Amino acid sequence: MSSSLRAGGGVQCASTISSPFAHVSPGREEVALELCRRVQQALLKAVSERTKASLAISGGSMNNMLRALKDADDIPWEHVHVFWADERCVPHDHEDSNFGAACKAWIDAVNLDKANNVHPVPAPEKGADEAADAYETLLRSQPDAVLPKSADGTPVFDLLLLGFGPDGHTCSLFPGLPHMDDTSGRAVLAVHDSPKPPPERVTLSAGVCRASRSILFVGVGAEKASTVNICLSDDTASRQLPAARVTRQAQQATWLLDMAAAAGELTPN
Predict the structure, then answer these.
(1) With 0-12 CB in 10 A as exposed, 13-18 as middle and 19+ as buried, what is 249?
(2) Residue 147 CB-density burial (10 A; 0-12 exposed, 13-18 middle, 19+ buried)
């Protein structure tokens, strides 16, 4: 593959929500290529505009889809900084670590300076409260050239890469928990009662998601179809789901889906 990543066929179609678009590809491989193409595009744009680019990623199978980034040899990785949208409170070498999974899947394969440009949650095994405080400090201490701040001091990422669960959660913002409505002004929140194990996690706040320049949601498989249909509609049920709320509030949000996740309602080119 050349340095210019080429995605498979897809179709963009406006949802009933005013801001986001869904891009539907035939299958998982095509979604992965489209994801990497858009990441490449966003990073190059950020570097061209302000010499640095900031990327925050979540966990899950999306990290495996990012492997094709190793073939994007025109990304200036020395100017790219990687952060995490959420993390489980386990050691970095634990099988449940989002940081560890990303390193194995793609970070170790690209020319990233892990010592200076990769910013995991410090010592998450010490517990959600301490880890959240440490990551809050880390984010706010970044130079504006690396991670700009809004007028109210909220960190502004160039790109967030997020998954979503069948329950509609994204990052570690779960339905039925209070974190979506947090008004503390914090960038990073401690989660003590995640309905998915492990129960202790840290997550970026909804405010940080809102401030980000762009968000890519990624979902493949039939098990995501009902959540997609709810989140990309404008009914009462969708208003309760964090993924839908983040989408509505985002500056720019795009959902990258395969046909199974789109429930076959949209036909790719």
Answers:
(1) middle
(2) buried
Reduced DSSP (H G I as helix, E B as strand, rest coil) percent helix, strand, coil of the chain, to 5: 35, 20, 45
Average pLDDT over residues 23-50: 95
Q: Phi/psi at 145 (nearest 5 deg)?
A: -65, -30
Closest to 215 measured CA to CA, from 52, 62, 102: 62
Tokens standing for residue 94: 């634990």
In the chain, the DSSP E strands lie at 11-14, 21-25, 53-57, 80-84, 86-88, 159-162, 188-191, 201-204, 215-219, 253-258
CA distance 220 to 34: 13
> Could you tell me whether strands 159-162 and 188-191 are parallel, antiparallel, or unpaired per DSSP bridges?
unpaired
Give the model confidence (pLDDT) of 227-240 as tens digits.
Answer: 888 888 777 766 78
pTM: 0.91
Tell me which DSSP letter residue 76 carries: -
Whole-number average pLDDT of the chain = 90
Tokens of 4: 């210019």
Contacts of 104 (CB under 8 A, 6+ apart): none
Q: pLDDT tens, 148-182?
A: 999 999 999 999 999 999 999 999 999 999 999 99
Q: Give the count of beta carbons closer than 10 Å to the beta carbon of residue 48.
A: 11
